[in-house]
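notes to self, project folder thing:

trying the whole complex as one job this time. last attempt i did each chain seperately and stitching them together was a nightmare. two parts in total, labels are on each line so i dont mix them up again. if this works i'll redo the older ones the same way
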Amino acid sequence: MTIKAIFLSGILCLLLPVLMQAQGKIGLDDTDTQASVKASYLFQFSKYTDWPDATKQGNFVIGVAGNTSLYNILVNKYANKAIGSQLLQIVEIKETGSIPEIIHILYINEELSNDLPKYIKALRKKPSLVVTEIVGAMDQGAHINFLQLDGIIRFEINDTKSQESGVSFSDKLKGWAIKLK
Amino acid sequence: MTRYINIAIVICLIILSGFKVQAQEAGPLTQKALKSMDSEDLNSGDIMRARDQILIALKDEIESNAAFTWHAKGFIYKDIYKKIDKESRYSENREIAVDAILRSMELDDTGYLSEANTKAMIFLSLSYFNDAVELLNNLNEENYEEPLKFYKRHRQLFQLCESDFDFRERDTEFYSNYGYQMKLFSDRSPSLKNILDPVAIAQYEQAVYITPADTASNYNLAVIHYNRGVQKIRAINHQTEIFELIMIQEECLKDFKLALPYMIKTNELEPKDKDALLGLMAIYKALNNDAESDKYRLELERLIKSGEIRKK
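result (full assembly):
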């Protein structure tokens, strides 16, 4: 080996380990992106919908059935925020029997699509907004249904059904919907 | 660490002997300068005296046209950089040493100084590399663009000595590490994130451009893009209106789409890498493509069940 060659190999031995020590994997942010967006929508729905006067006392209640991640985000980010003169309360709904007497919005997750008729029935005579992300849910009695448009979460509105339930959507909210029934 | 220090000492001795072995070729003024350097107990006064003498030698018509005079100047200025400037990365004397060695190379028609000049230039080139690495490990608001400058200088000088050297591996490693350190720095500086993240991305893009199969760079590049999108979603709060929510999603979609090909590539390179599978699950979910996200979730579950990858 020539002196030059010894020198060159020396450089590699001397320096490359310095760089190798710095290698590492950057941590993936584990935020549930879909749930975060849906949580924000649910909060906004409460601002652009009008409920009967009888439900404007006590807390403003949003129930979440079947999506723990969404429930946690709502609790951590939006609980106790003001909706008009009411404070927002988030409740986790495990079954139809645990639905509170007054519930302003009930979100039903996709995985509970088979139970949707039960939830709709339980809320039939209540001024409650049923929000789902289930194909065909509007025909079954849901008021708002999340759907995806070009990779973006949007929503469709069943205005006829909401009037039957005694809740009314603002024109602004209807304007943001991609489908209005 | 001790091993590397020993190697460094050996290298320095080799370089030193490389410089000194040519002393008999020097003109009288240059010899005088080198004599000032030939002290057992070399101090800064000796070195500065040598510098003044070599500058006198370079005013001489004959000696100023001799390759060795310039080589000696390079040697002296290299010592000023090392012993007086304490290897400061901003030492102007190092650049003077580089210019002197370059001049010596130009004048060395017979090539008798070729090996000595090469060693000297490699040493100087190496010092720039060391500075680049040191900067990488100590990035701050003032210096975060500097590593590239020093690395490029290292590369430029090294190439003068080893024109056939294949830099791909070294370049990839440098850019990949620069990207990683920039990302760490960006995470430490939330207010500068929008400035620093693109710098980190640019380094990783350079790394995967040079080595498309570099797994770490592909993965980290995907994660940076993905996390940037998620960061925008995390910023959503009770004041975010629906029209803003739609716009934010559109913005995020761009980040997630940028992340996807790099994570797919990582998965192709390392099909059993748990992080890449988790990454694909997350990206597809963020793109609201649950079917694809589930596909990778099932693959991950299969690999865990078969024992091909560990759960934790």
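what i see at first glance: Chain A touches chain B through 47 residues (CB under 8 Å).
need to look closer tmrw
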